[in-house]
Specification:
The chain is mostly helical. The protein is built from 8 helices and no strands.
Length: 296
């Protein structure tokens, strides 16, 4: 790494254990859908889920140690990580594009049949968009504002106390008053970043609770026509992305508390989490206007 600037990753068991845990969870779901013995499904699924969580915790811990304490994430590595994250989000964009395509294909096909077709189909009562869905939209937009506040606070914090680690401080080029001001500003922005990140995580959890209540109170299911299938697939996958993003931001909040993003240190992990969260916000806006407003 020191000759090339790239990080040559050590041998790790986590990709293998992660693949096996996902395979186990998928097999358990398939067995559940095909009415396999529930005891086998629950035991095998629980073991696979535990292995997945354990793998995630250990793998992410290794990455944090490599980037924060071992200095393996050089500028070249971080640049490639940023490109990889952008490509990953782009793949997620097309993932949701396929669902939007299916939704509009079915709905426009029904509408084009004039008096025969109807959207939503007869017997399916769509959810009124200007109550719970509008509240969820406001919650996600608010979380996007708070996470942007955290991003800006971390960026400013990394610039404010730069003189603290400057060797010129000891030589007298910076007065004690300026030194104290830098430390005070850094602490202030650090507290702002932590508060706004906690607020974002809370809003994400609140969104998922309201989404669950909406599913519980819905008058139709995933088996009720193409509308029910596309509705629950699109909003369900979006909810799964909200859960992943909330966990991502929670980990970054813990890292903020332990000052992993301080003093011009690498904070690509925070950048990636914020990019991902903004992507989730944009997808929800599309879902709100397409599925809830136009679909109603």
């Amino acid at each position: 790494m020191f000759r090339t600037g790239y990080h040559l990753v050590d041998i790790s068991p986590w990709p293998f254990s992660g693949a096996m845990s996902v395979l186990g969870i998928t097999s358990s779901l398939v067995g559940y859908f095909h009415r396999a013995p529930l005891m086998w499904v629950y035991v095998f699924g629980s073991i696979s889920l535990f292995l997945l969580v354990f793998t995630m915790v250990r793998w992410w811990s290794d990455v944090v140690v490599e980037s924060t304490y071992l200095g393996c994430h050089t500028s070249l590595v971080v640049r490639n990580l940023r490109v990889g994250m952008v490509l990953f989000i782009l793949s997620e964009v097309f993932f949701f594009v396929s669902f939007f395509w299916a939704f509009f294909h079915v709905s426009i096909g029904e509408i084009s049949m004039r008096t025969i077709g109807q959207w939503p189909p007869l017997g399916v009562k769509a959810i009124y968009p200007w109550k719970v869905p509008a509240l969820n939209t406001a919650i996600l937009l608010g979380s996007g504002m708070s996470v942007t506040w955290a991003h800006k606070a971390v960026s400013v914090h990394n610039k404010c106390p730069a003189g603290v680690l400057n060797p010129n401080v000891s030589s007298g080029s910076i007065s004690p008053e300026e030194y104290n001001n830098l430390v005070e500003k850094g602490s202030c922005y650090q507290k702002q970043a932590i508060f706004s990140m906690v607020l974002t995580v809370a809003l994400g959890a609140f969104f998922m609770c309201i989404q669950y209540e909406e599913y519980y109170m819905a008058s139709f299911t995933i088996a009720d026509s193409a509308f029910g299938s596309t509705f629950f697939i699109m909003t369900g996958f979006h909810g799964m992305h909200v859960f992943v993003g909330t966990v991502f931001l929670f980990i970054c909040t813990l890292r903020l508390i332990y000052r992993h993003f301080s003093f011009n240190h690498h904070y690509f992990g925070l950048d990636a989490a914020i990019w991902y969260w903004h992507f989730v916000d944009v997808v929800w806006i599309g879902l709100f206007f397409a599925v809830y407003v136009w679909g109603y």
